[in-house]
Amino acid sequence: MSRTLVSAIPGRVGEQVRIEGWVARVRALGGLTFVILRERTGSIQAILERGEWPNLTSEAVVAIEGKVVENPRAPGGYEILATQVEVLNQTHGQLPVEVSGTELGCGPEVLVEQRVLTMRHPKQAAIFKVQAAIVEGFTAYLRSEGFLEIFTPKLIATGTEGGSELFSVPYFGRQAFLAQSPQLYKEMLVASGAERVFEVGHVYRAEPHETSRHLSEYVSLDVEVGFIQGEEELMALETALLRHIFAHLAATCEAELMLWGGVPTVPAEIPRVTYAEACERVGELSAQGEKSLCQALGSELVFVTAFPATERPFYAMPVPGAPHLTKTFDLVYRGLEITSGGQRLHALPALEASMVAHGMSPEAFGAYREAFKHGMPPHGGFAIGLERLTARVLGLGSVREASLFPRTRNRLAP
Question: Which CATH architecture is the domain 115-402 placed in?
Answer without folding.
Answer: 2-Layer Sandwich (3.30)
